[in-house]
Design a protein that fits this description.
The protein contains 15 helices and 15 strands. By secondary structure, the chain is an alpha/beta fold. α2 packs antiparallel against α11, α3 packs parallel to α11 and α4 crosses α10. The relative contact order is 0.16.
Length: about 400
């Protein structure tokens, strides 16, 4: 490979929640590991890979100019998004007027819900549910109604359209929030699946907020289908949200964008997001996107997806061979694994609290999946060098799932 996805990067003391947050975020990051174990960060959804060089070059060029005053997004910024969407997602005819800056995907979700719903109203989401949605929507006073995904005979997670329709009608829902690809399951929705979902939404006059931040991280053999591309209803009733932050490990720079074709929705969302006066672009964030969406960035992402695919293949094979009682479905996109540990916990008379703690004790920083509305789940980040994934799996095998020290205090 041209780019480096194998070197173990030391992020200690470099402003990283994933590494330096241990013991500082109750409910998310337990205490550091026991003596004798170094820490392998596999919980926060950012990557332990250095970002694309074209981003650093672009930022360095801008920093050489010593003024950082007020500014407007440049035409190059919008043109890079238009070209990226055309090249990566086969989106044609996208115009500058349909693109709007957002500080973050969740910020846009909040703005959209403020514009389209009132406190006390219900919103439809799929379960398992991205924890960020829960922590954003609940505090707004909106009622989250969950439609559970289910595993088909091949273990592939699917939407339950009948359940979606029933709950939309029962709770008089007019807004749904989706993940495409789905977080945390890693499903890359097929065109026909999205069409059936949009049929349900159209029949019930539901507007869709589609979080597509993972759309660039698609594993070989799959293709991201933009929700807005399904039909005219989807185009005019979907708020789609994208960002280079997940793709290029830029979360600390902040910066996302929405695509909204409906002028009515565009005006409503723009008004809601502008009222705080904090939804404003950082000049270095703008240049980071410009650097990311260059041809070198596209090449880098292709190699990134191959590196993640190798990690996924190793982890899936290892879990199925060595970690009996743990169920896992191979993701089609994202760099997350979603483990189901119900059978293992029952067989070993163990609680999820004990299981989660035992992983952290041996330096495997995984994420408690219960906050995603799954009582026996753990989410595992595989965006780190393969050698670290291998070490993590061996520790889980030896000390947690098949070892006698898992509940040491």
């Amino acid at each position: 490979m041209k780019y480096d996805f194998t070197t173990v990067m030391d992020r200690r003391g470099k402003d990283s929640i994933a590494v330096d947050g241990c013991g500082l975020m109750p409910g998310f990051a337990p205490d550091p590991p026991m003596e004798g174990f170094d820490f392998i960060p596999m919980w926060v959804a950012d990557m332990n890979f250095p970002t694309c060089p074209s981003i650093i070059n672009e930022i360095e060029d801008r920093v050489k100019h010593p003024a950082f005053g007020y500014f407007l997004p440049s035409d190059e910024y919008f043109n890079k998004i238009i070209h990226w969407q055309e090249k990566r997602n086969n989106v044609f005819g996208l115009a500058k007027e349909s693109i709007g800056y957002e500080n973050g995907v969740l910020g846009c979700v909040v703005s959209a819900l403020n514009a389209l719903t009132l406190p006390g109203e219900a919103v439809l989401l799929h379960s398992p549910t991205y924890v960020g949605f829960t922590h954003s929507i609940d505090p707004m006073g909106r009622k989250m109604i969950l439609s559970d995904l289910y595993a088909d005979k091949d273990g592939v997670m699917r939407m339950n359209y009948e359940d979606m329709d029933t709950k939309i009608k029962e709770h008089k829902i007019h807004v749904a929030v989706m993940c495409s690809p789905h977080n945390p399951s890693g499903r890359v929705w097929e065109r026909e699946e999205l069409k059936l979902a949009m049929d349900v939404f159209e029949q019930n006059e539901v507007t869709v907020i589609s979080d597509e931040i993972w759309s660039d991280i698609i594993l070989p053999g799959y293709q991201h289908i933009p929700t807005q591309s399904i039909n005219e209803y989807a185009r005019n009733h979907t708020i789609a949200i994208y960002a280079p932050s997940k793709t290029f490990n830029l979360a600390g720079l902040v910066g996302s964008y929405h695509i909204i074709y409906s002028s009515y929705l565009n005006d409503r969302i723009a008004k809601a997001s502008s009222q705080t006066h904090y939804n404003m672009m950082n000049v270095l964030s703008m240049h980071a996107l410009i650097g990311a969406y260059k041809s070198e960035g596209s090449e880098w992402v292709d190699e990134l997806c191959l590196a993640i695919d190798k990690n996924v293949n190793f982890a899936i094979d290892y879990i199925r061979e060595h970690l009996k009682g743990v169920r896992v479905t191979r993701p089609q996109g994202t760099y997350m694994l979603f483990l189901n540990c119900e059978n293992w916990c029952i067989e070993h008379a163990a609680t999820m609290d004990e299981l989660v703690k035992s992983g952290w004790q041996v330096g495997v920083g995984w994420q408690d999946g219960r906050m995603f509305h799954d009582p026996y789940a753990i989410r595992l980040n595989l965006a780190l060098p393969l050698s670290r994934v291998q070490e993590a799996m061996q520790r889980l095998d030896k000390f947690v799932f098949n070892g006698g020290t898992r509940f040491a205090c």
